[in-house]
Amino acid sequence: VHTIGVLTSGGDAPGMNAAIRAAVRRGLQKGVTVKGILKGFDGLMNDEIIDLSAKDVSDTIERGGTILYTARCAEMRTLEGQKRAAEVCKKNGIDGLVVIGGDGSFAGAQKLAEQGINAIGIPGTIDLDIACTEYTIGFDTAVNTAMEAIDKVRDTSTSHERCSIIEVMGRNAGYIALWCGIANGAEDILLPEKYDYDEQKIIENIIENRRKGKKHHIIVNAEGIGHSTSMARRIEAATGIETRATILGHMQRGGSPTCKDRVYASIMGAYAVDLLISGKTNRVVGYKNGEYVDFDINEALAMTKTIPEYQYEIARALSYNYSK
Ligand code: F6P
Predict the structure, then answer these.
(1) Which residues form the Phosphofructokinase domain (predicted)?
(2) Does residue 253 have its Cβ closer than 6 Å to ligand 1?
(3) pTM of the model
């Protein structure tokens, strides 16, 4: 490999800059030219490509967002778009691509591979919803941001003796909700993977807890379930307890990455470049059982994952409602 292109695609995630920085510096150290592709696959199709030196990635490891910008690119799902993207790579001499993003971005990378461009995926998403890996860049920062926000909502919720529904991100996955549910000691955790919740039961719990003197009732709701505002109205009407919904939204995607996100993202960025240099083709980097690993991109995309039963059971067991 002579020239590596790096892009970020899909929703941004804190730690992406650490991965970009690592890819650039590892590539340069190994004698490879590194180019940054702006705005994901969209920018690739429009030939928005810059040279990257070691200095260009200075002072980026601590920054949230992505210095390369990002986009969700519908055109990459068309054969025409895929051909165009591969042509631009070839025109720029890019013979290896590092794609930092989620499953959708890996699907784009896989299509580029079919067009003859070797691509390596790095899992970058706050949702933790990539099956081949136990770690995705940005989850740790996002879940810490959400945890701190929920602590704050809880202060005011207690003062006003309210019930609070806090909606966290995660698309169709409930990992942020599960982790916050445990970390914030939520009374209820609603996950899309466990869509068996009984609103009547929650209402009974709220009334019962209030009777026992509990001042707040925190419900962490995953965005994959959603409808937090209407849920709050129904709960308030049924319990007579003031209920507010707080949707944390995009604040969960921003901010300076945690130490874990900086370190894991750095290693994954370098690992992806090492794969390209060693001649491996069409891989996805992952973290499993304490090791950095890589999988064939097609195999990675075919894997599935869901919320670990035991973690969910313990989350419920530790909540006030169910702990008696
Ligand atoms: O995939 C990351 C994520 O933040 C999801 O949690 C959320 O569903 C989605 O992206 C929001 O996307 P957008 O930024 O396009 O509104």
Answers:
(1) 4-276
(2) yes
(3) 0.97
